[in-house]
């Protein structure tokens, strides 16, 4: 069968939450190119599990890339061999696609199991890009850092294990390296500018390559830090103090405390939008946007002071789990019934698990699939809450499953095997729908549990379930 060559641009804007999607949409001119704007939910609140789902269509409980302890080990986030065969880059390269990975997130790299891309570019312009400290020394430092909590103990351990000479180089790295090799625009530029240059260069010089390419991108501009290194921890301290001293009225003052952070977040969204606008215009101008599938989404949201918390942590709320999703199909597929169905379905909920299936279908069979669901699922591997002004992070061994749809928002704890929250989102829903959501959540849990027993992913079970539990 004749297969038309198409280009696929799959862009993840790390930590972009749903309520800033409109800002991105308007500033990047997405409406000019007829992008659909959809309601989407991520599978997890951290980069690594969410990205693995975005590339495989597997929920975290099946691909098992998630944080397993409070001091996460790098192994927690390694994509296993068993999961590789489900990854889009592996599948699409068999169909002749050139696969590109442009990533500013160190977790989303071949070193952590995102293997099989024809091209990989590490976008993050770190101060440590060139350094007085070797890679091996940095690994030892990480190990000491994770073992010892006190900075005095850490100092002595560095000195003992790595020596005096290392301590001198560490100081030079901190104070001199940024002068020579520093990125002057850090932390505002986290590699997005470089990505724009790279892509525009390809469009201008070798645009024919793009129509046989699958390009997966992670941009970190909207991820912390925003104003200076470790700003989230600084602001969390301020917020904690406010919660502790402000009593029940702390929420009235939160805006004032976190305002600089929210402003910076907003301007980062605008920054990414302008990068996007330029790239889309170049693609349009080169006449290849018509033949491209473009998907723009985020891996998880970000808390900016809501509930007295900051960052992406285990909280089951829309700021954390709901993310923007913008979609443009190749022009010849826009007349398709399924496209119209998606476009006209005002209730359409899209799980991230559906995106890899859509990409495969468009790239291989040249036809879209319906990606709308009536229920979407996410997994949290812990809970974060306020205790006497302090933010407490509690991890759980098994996931807490979040489900949204049919007029309900529920949380099922797989550790205690019970629903811990069961909320009606609107009043019009009936008993039948409540029963339905209970049934679907139990099916999801059974899927996670079944594979738990098999200790790994059996492709048979995975394809049978079709993830639409
Ligand atoms: Zn992330």
Brief summary of the model shown:
With 469 residues, this protein is α/β, with parallel strands linked by helices. The chain is 43% helix and 20% strand.
Q: What does it look like?
A:
This protein is 43% helix and 20% strand. The protein has 469 residues and is α/β, with parallel strands linked by helices. It folds into two domains: 307 residues, 3-Layer(aba) Sandwich (Alkaline Phosphatase, subunit A); 55 residues, no CATH class. The strands form three sheets. It has an eight-stranded mixed sheet, sandwiched between helices. It has a four-stranded antiparallel sheet with strand order 11-12-13-14. Helix 1 packs parallel to helix 12, helix 6 packs antiparallel against helix 7 and helix 10 runs parallel beside helix 12. The site of zinc ion has 5 residues, from loops.
